[in-house]
Write a structure and sequence with these properties.
This protein is an alpha/beta fold and 339 residues long. The protein folds into two domains: 139 residues, NAD(P)-binding Rossmann-like Domain (Rossmann fold, 3-Layer(aba) Sandwich); 182 residues, Rossmann fold (3-Layer(aba) Sandwich), CATH 3.40.50.720. Helix content is 35%, strand content 14%. The protein contains 13 helices and twelve strands. The protein has a seven-stranded parallel sheet with strand order 8-7-6-9-10-11-12, with helices on both faces. Helix 2 runs parallel beside helix 13 and helix 5 packs across helix 8. The chain is elongated and about 70 Å long. The mean pLDDT is 96.
Length: 339
């Protein structure tokens, strides 16, 4: 944009979500970059309402549950130059040719990788050394000797860990593993040999190789047509006895019925943060299995992550205002592998 001008910035997240993502300091930075119009309604706008408000906006800040930018909306936005998305994927927001309409789109997906990676690491450690079960036994006044006998566990550093997907989150998870000296295998069709060498990981050629060769398997792939149900009954059968499966990515990556059947056998364990039906039904059989750790889709939900999303979003708006290259711009090529 031209130096010395202040863009009109339209903020779509409702107040409660906005203040969850944008700290007072980050909000002050944003106010210094342009003329701001906030969403004063404690609800999500419709596309029709967005079309009515978008006319003078040069920059739009979007977030979870924002309305779709339909053809009608974009036709009402002659000044639009930047959509700065304060969350992850932007696929649901735009028409198929949205990225060719003369404006740029950025995403704060990079902000979420750290917390999801840490949750995956925590889940692996808990399944190898069942602290949650020992804690429950202690608080239930269980027998000391019995609990002590069950508490030996295993070390993560003694395992070979397989990572499916080397995107933002997968790379953070890999860094945590390599920092602990864990042997790490990765399956990702888009991972080059050069990048694998730089990350100090073994790049496996097939998913089957990873499933048969690794004791712990963590899913960090996006939800795309190519990854839908990539872990089915056959793939689960390839996993070692005593294997651990961790899914903090998307439930669509796994055949849920096949996983439930395998878990009921007690042959493998799992840690799941995502489910085909959310909230997870109260009568879900998963809730009664001792070899499963369940969390309510919270892997990315930390105070730090949410404020980092806001910071990355305002960073991009600031780069735009200064005429600098955007760091997290979404390209048409990226859409093929984006969730």
């Amino acid at each position: 944009m031209e130096k010395g001008t202040r863009p009109h910035i339209l903020v779509l997240p409702p107040p409660s979500l906005y203040h969850k993502l944008f700290s007072a300091e980050t909000d002050a930075r944003l106010r210094g970059l342009g003329t701001i119009t906030y969403n004063g309604d404690e609800r999500d706008l419709t596309s029709a309402e967005l079309a009515e408000r978008i006319g003078i906006a040069e920059v739009i800040i979007t977030g979870w549950r924002c309305p779709k930018f339909t053809d009608e909306v974009l036709a009402s936005a002659p000044k639009l130059k930047l959509i700065a998305h304060s969350a992850g994927s932007i696929k649901f927001m735009l028409p198929d040719d949205g990225l060719s309409r003369g404006f740029k789109v950025t995403t704060a997906a990079a902000a979420m990788g750290v917390s999801v990676a840490e949750m995956s690491l925590l889940m692996a450690l808990m399944l190898l050394r069942p602290i949650h079960q020992l804690d429950a036994g202690m608080k239930a006044r269980g027998d000391w000797k019995d609990l002590k006998a069950r508490g030996s566990g295993e070390e993560l550093t003694a395992q070979r860990v397989g990572v499916i997907g080397a995107g933002h989150t997968g790379r953070h998870f890999i860094r945590l593993l390599r920092g602990m000296g864990v042997e790490t295998w990765v399956f990702d069709p888009y991972l080059t040999a050069e990048r694998a060498a730089a990350m100090d990981v073994e790049r496996v050629k097939s998913l089957d190789d990873l499933l048969t060769g690794c004791r712990v398997v963590a899913l960090h792939a996006p939800s795309t047509p190519q990854t839908y149900r990539m872990i089915g009954r056959r793939e689960l059968g390839l996993m070692k006895d005593g294997a651990i499966l961790i899914n903090t990515a998307r439930s669509s990556l796994i055949d849920g019925r096949a996983l439930l059947d395998e878990l009921k056998k007690g042959r493998i364990s799992a840690a799941l943060d995502v489910f085909d039906e959310e909230p997870l039904p109260a009568d879900s059989p998963l809730r009664g299995l001792p070899n499963v750790i369940l969390t309510p889709h919270v892997a990315s939900h930390t105070v730090n992550t949410h404020f980092r999303q806001g910071e990355l979003t305002v960073d991009e708006v600031e780069r735009y205002v200064r005429g600098e290259p955007l760091k997290y711009v979404v390209t048409p090529e990226m859409l093929a592998t984006m969730a």
